[in-house]
Amino acid sequence: MKLLIIGNARHGKTTAAEILSKKFDLKFADSSRAAAEIFLYDKLKDKYDYKDFNECYEDRVNHRQEWFEEICEFNKDDPTRLAKEIMKTADIYCGMRSGREILKCVEDKIFDHIIFIYNPNLPHEETNSFDIDFDEIPEHHTIINKPKRGLWYLEKQLRGLLKELQIIQLERGRKVQV
Known about the structure:
Blueprint: E1 3-6, H1 13-24, E2 28-30, H2 31-44, H3 53-58, H4 64-74, H5 81-87, E3 92-94, H6 99-107, E4 113-118, E5 140-144, H7 151-164, E6 168-171, E7 174-177
Parallel strand pairs: 1-3, 1-4, 2-3, 4-5
Antiparallel strand pairs: 6-7
């Protein structure tokens, strides 16, 4: 089962992916980390005088537009390029920010399901680093993240969605992938 988790910055995408990884043995890859490992760290390390990979990765929040543009450039000829690389070793791609890339991935059937994590208490991301129009994305599943209710609530929603999608079933208290 191949999943794509999308949503605005800080809305809970990575938290959802971590829950799915820990509770359901699904391996996830964060798009920014993967992009940095594949090409971005080498491209940016001298420009920003990064001491190591982790410094580059942690500083991405200060350069969101640049990271977005670099990933779009990497995917210029093939909008699925980074997704294909990530999905070679992962069950979940977490954090795609380009509508063009998502639509091509849908067309090429890179993912079985798309999960949109949304926190109504947080602002939407700037369009210079995120150009997804959720109305254009076919058949995605929305999970409303309400952090005040706790992680258990997000986990409950994710578990329910995985059961609904027949990705897991529960047998006598243990989870089984379908």
